[in-house]
Amino acid sequence: MMPLSLEAPAKINLSLRVVGRRPDGFHLLETEMVLLELADRLLLLPGATGLRVEAPMEDEVPVDQSNLAWRGLVAGLGGPPELACLALEKHIPAAAGLGGGSSDAAAAWRLGRRAAGDSETATPEDLLALAVLGADVPFFAAGVAAALMTGIGEVVTPIEPASAEHCVLVLPEFRLSTAAVFGELRDADLATDRPRGNDLLAPALRLRPELAELIRAVAAAGGEPRLTGSGSTIFTLTDDPDRAAAITATLRGAGVSVVVTRLRREPALIVELDDAPLDGGASAPGMG
Q1: Percentage with pLDDT > 90 across the chain
Q2: Catalytically active residues, by annotation
Q3: Domains in the chain, ordered, with CATH?
Q4: Is this structure's pTM higher than 0.85?
């Protein structure tokens, strides 16, 4: 097997509306999503079967078969790998509304499909199956840079990327559980008359009132603060690099953790490598 490498980009939600709920408990969504240049990196390598993860300890990324990247690889291959190691290098903060785990799952699915000699082009049936892993996974697997997502995430309609190029991400010290935010969602939070915005902002604020301080800080720095996904990341977009730099400098001067990135105009492509050594990382018990 040829060693393969693939970036797993982060995402932001330009808008997010909760429009219903199915009898099985899955929420029905309408959300515009775009890729960012901020990305994790995955390697699929020949050798001892296993999973290796290089990630900050505080993110508590699973290193066993519950890891979304591993589950995505198994789905892409059609079963557990034989003599293949998946290495995951994390750069996207966990539980931050940036889709890191879902993007890892989709990237690993694509790597598995390539290794199995199957098409990387996801069919509607593939997207529905991947939605079981997470509502964001179909977007990352669809091979588009921007899309309107509907249903439980399985309906992916490509759209034009936002005109803004620069994205300033404000990363709180705390994280928010997607399940907890949806569990806090109330009927009054659903803004049926608002075409844009994020219906999960109100429940996120109830769980973490500190978010309001960050929103005010971004606005005071000259940005237009918005919540991505279920949080906890606040972002602002601009097409002016000087404005992005000024907002970033002001926020960092106030002690706020900031990451500056750009919107991605194209999905990531799989790269075939001649040599792809592993650089340490954690190995799943009994798997590597």
Answers
A1: 80
A2: 11, 136
A3: 4-161 (3.30.230.10), 166-262 (3.30.70.890)
A4: yes
